[in-house]
Amino acid sequence: EAEPAKTPRERPPKGSTKIITKKFKWIMKRPENIRISADVLSGMSRKQPILGLETAIYTHGFPKPNNFDLAMEMEEMVRANGAIPATIGILNGEIYIGMTKDQLKELAESAGSEKTIKVSQRDIAYTIGQMGPPLNGGTTIAATIQIAALSGIRVVATGGLGGVHKGGESSMDVSADLAALGRLKINLVTSGMKSFLDTARTMEYLETQGVFVSTFGTRGERVDIPGFYSRESGYRSPHIVESAEEAARIAFSADMLKLTTGNVFFNPIPKEYEIPKSEMDPIIESAVEKFKSVTGKDNTPAVLNEILKETEGRSIEANRQLVLDNAKIGAQVAVHIRKFED
Ligand code: PSU
Ligand code: MN
């Protein structure tokens, strides 16, 4: 029989403040078209906990006009939990790390226009380097964690993780989120992949990339990789983490080991907002079937939009609640990591 989990008695050894200092040098010398908000900059210089947030959810996930409200709620949630929100996105050909209310509004309202593109890893440099009309961009997890890692942000919270698409073994549609997590030292709080993705293959890919994968839950209970709208996916989580403090301890231990890979902390949707898997599965399946021929980066937004229509907005409320909860937990993880670093 398994032994009960031990409470950590000792903190890991001190001494990773150097990492922050080195990054801060880059921040001070950064190019002009990478803007850091006054809030985030002062937080960085004071070594306060900062939580990175993505924006593809606002431009290509969550419909207008509620996308702007959600962006504001996310920022409030992060602050209420002791961290500084750093919403990362592209506005008028410039990268923002931390956005003001007006900037968030401008980006959110521009969703759906030709100017506003979904920015994955490979698109980042184009958005600031290209010489056509200035672009806005919502950054995916891949792009967001790239920019976060560059500026020394340790924790990023998001809604759903990209993954291996169904049929990915022949279409090769595998989200850049996964390779980015294999390459970047970042801690990601997310509610899982939608069941329109291939959970098993996504997990295999992350394992090969050396990405730590865990789910918040209770040891001794069955804990699944969450299925985004549902707490279950049918696939067991390889590891269980019981608290934000424990997540931070694992993140800090990875630092001490000089690991260069990402850590994923899945946070299941709060029970009261869950849509049962049995209800979601057929909806998701038919949405996937309908947009089978839409390939590349347009597939995810098309499927998400179809799910929204089919659930008559219920998926939206579930999405809102889970992403807010991720902001809360993400902020707590960031706060705990800072404590270890002191
Ligand atoms: N899954 C969701 N909502 C989202 C996304 C995924 O439930 O908004 C977004 C995230 O920004 C994620 C991106 O990083 O889609 C993945 O897109 P792709 O599959 O094209 O890599
Ligand atoms: Mn894709």
Give a written overview of the molecule.
It contains 14 helices and eleven strands. The protein has helices at 17-29, 38-45, 56-60, 66-80, 101-109, 124-129, 141-150, 168-171, 176-183, 199-208, 244-256, 277-290, 299-310, 314-341, and strands at residues 34-36, 50-53, 84-91, 94-97, 116-119, 136-139, 155-157, 187-190, 212-216, 240-241, 263-266. With 342 residues, the protein is of the alpha/beta class. The model is unreliable at 6-13 (pLDDT under 50). Helix 9 (176-183) runs parallel beside helix 10. Pseudouridine-5'-monophosphate (PSU) is lined by residues 54, 56-57, 61, 120, 140-141, 159-160, 162, 175-177, 194, 228, 297, 300, 304.
Task: Please specify the SSE layout and strand pairing.
Elements (H helix, E strand, L loop, with lengths): L16 H13 L4 E3 L1 H8 L4 E4 L2 H5 L5 H15 L3 E8 L2 E4 L3 H9 L6 E4 L4 H6 L6 E4 L1 H10 L4 E3 L10 H4 L4 H8 L3 E4 L8 H10 L3 E5 L23 E2 L2 H13 L6 E4 L10 H14 L8 H12 L3 H28 L1
Parallel strand pairs: 1-4, 2-3, 2-7, 5-6, 7-8, 8-11, 9-10, 9-11
Antiparallel strand pairs: 3-4, 3-6
Helix pairs in contact: 4-5, 4-14, 7-9, 9-10, 11-14, 12-13
The structure holds pseudouridine-5'-monophosphate and manganese (II) ion (MN).
Manganese (II) ion (MN) binds next to loops.
Organism: Drechslerella dactyloides (Nematode-trapping fungus)
Protein name: Pseudouridine-5'-phosphate glycosidase
